[in-house]
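Can anyone check this?
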Amino acid sequence: MRSYGIYKVKEMYQPFIIGRERLLYDLLKEGGQQNESMPEVHYLCDRLKKETIDDAIITNLGKSFTSIECQNGQYKLTHPVKGSIFISLSAYSLSVYCDGSRMLDLDLFVALSGAHDRFFAIMDGHGEWGWLKPVKYTELRTREATVLL
């Protein structure tokens, strides 16, 4: 079973974090649910809105799953071939457990990145991390320059 912590980085800090993803990973990798109380997480990450996550999971991801269970910010999605995804929503993160094919992970990442482009995931115990949607650095620099003008 693979487990992930997924956070939504605040838009104003995304340009700063690009190129420094390893530092963010080092900050988040050990904490798990304890990260919720860290002031650094409150500073760098947006609170997750249940409606946005519901829409991303149920509308975007639910199409390809045969069974969807949703209760109190927890989701279980099952596919007969790929396996199951268990998702738990908290104030600043999603805790995700994928049991089955790696296609489950990809399906989840595509669904969430369709909702926002600032989701950052860490894979527990494997030293893997990254943006769910590839970041176009030139777009970020252009936005910064426009704001400064």
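Reply from J.R.: I decoded it. The CA atoms of residues 31 and 38 lie 9 Å apart.
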